[in-house]
Structures are given as structure tokens and as C-alpha cells.
Design brief:
mainly alpha, Arp2/3 complex 21 kDa subunit ARPC3, two-stranded antiparallel sheet, 2 strands, 5% strand
Length: 201
């Protein structure tokens, strides 16, 4: 049997490396990280806590609801790498990038990959309805789970690094953001459900 020539082997090699699909995924990951960066700069500082109110969580949850778990986690990982590299993607708090990520308030950021993957997994696991109302409910449930992971991680990290009493930690890292996070969950779930209906239409 004659060995396959390079010309005949190249098509199978190209099929093994679907560059257009990889390119689309790469563009999606980069654009997703840019969306988080833009939302991070919509920030409102609070005088009683070092944690600002931002739209980051909305972007994280929305991306998690429309992407696969792996893609969502990849977006978050790239965003963290961009922040560590010193790119202006983090909320403008005045701290150095590495201190921002690994400092007392960095627990929120570090939880993004896991929270996004969990949100995406739950939505895909339980989304078995074609109705817009059902899609919204499942998306809201998944986004709420992801939001809880972010809040819990932020509070735990802050408490470990600052050694503040538990009630003080909750008052500074969780309580001020509950109402806003509920609105972000509703907005992310509604947007994701609307996009799903648009694609199906």
C-alpha cells in the first residue's frame, strides 16, 4: 500500500483543527472579557465599604447564561489575566491590579470562573421549556446561584484577609449588594431569555 501523500493528508489535518470555529470562540472570549471590563468601569463607591457597586456581576451572569460552561469560564479567566497584566479592565478603585485581585476585595473577582461555569451548567441542565416565562425562571434561578457564589466568595476572602468579625464582614461585603444583585439577576435573566427567543425566531 502506498503511503498517503501530503496533499491527501492535509484535508484530514485541517478537519482535525477547525480554525474557523476556534477563531469564533476566541473572538467570543475576547469580546466577553471586554464587556466585563466596560461594566466594571460603571462603578459607584460606597463610603462604608471598600467594595464598590459595579455592573460587573450583571455582565458575568449574562455571559454565563448565553455561553457554555467552558466558554463562560474561559471568558472570566481571560478577564482575570488581563487584570493581572495591568490592563485597565478592573473597577477604578485606585489600587494596583494585583492588589485589586489578590487583596481583601479580590474574592469576588477570583470566583468569576467558577460562578460563571455553575450558572451556565444549571441553565443548560434545567432549561427544558420553550416558553419565554419558563426560560426566564430557569435563567433567574441559575443566575441567583452564580450570584450567591460570588457574594459568598467575596465575603469569605474578605473575612480571611481582614480578620473582621463575621457580622462586620457581612455588613460590608454582602448586605449592601443584595438588592442590586437581585436587579442584576432579573436583568441578566430577562436579557438571556430575550436573546434565546430572538434566536429561535
Amino acid at each position: 500500500m502506498n503511503p498517503a501523500s501530503p496533499a491527501s493528508a492535509s484535508p484530514s489535518l485541517l478537519r482535525s483543527f477547525p480554525l474557523p470555529a476556534l477563531a469564533r470562540r476566541a473572538v467570543t472570549v475576547v469580546l466577553g472579557s471586554l464587556l466585563i471590563a466596560v461594566c466594571a468601569h460603571i462603578a459607584f463607591p460606597l463610603w462604608f465599604t471598600p467594595v464598590p457597586v459595579t455592573l460587573q456581576t450583571f455582565a458575568v451572569l449574562l455571559l454565563a447564561l448565553v455561553l457554555s460552561p467552558g466558554m463562560a469560564a474561559s471568558v472570566m479567566a481571560l478577564y482575570l489575566v488581563e487584570g493581572m497584566a495591568g490592563l485597565p479592565v478592573l473597577a477604578p478603585t485606585g489600587t494596583v491590579s494585583l492588589l485589586h485581585i489578590f487583596g481583601p476585595t479580590g474574592g469576588y473577582l477570583l470566583s468569576y470562573p467558577a460562578a460563571a461555569a455553575l450558572t451556565s451548567f444549571l441553565r443548560r441542565r434545567f432549561l427544558r421549556t420553550k416558553s419565554a416565562r419558563g426560560a426566564f425562571a430557569v435563567s433567574a434561578f441559575a443566575a441567583a446561584a452564580g450570584s450567591m457564589v460570588i457574594l459568598f466568595s467575596g465575603a469569605l476572602w474578605f473575612g480571611i484577609l481582614t480578620r473582621q468579625p463575621a457580622m462586620t464582614v457581612l455588613a460590608m461585603t454582602v448586605a449592601p449588594f443584595l438588592a442590586g444583585d437581585i436587579l442584576k439577576i432579573i436583568a441578566a435573566a430577562g436579557t438571556a431569555a430575550g436573546l434565546r427567543r430572538f434566536r429561535r425566531g
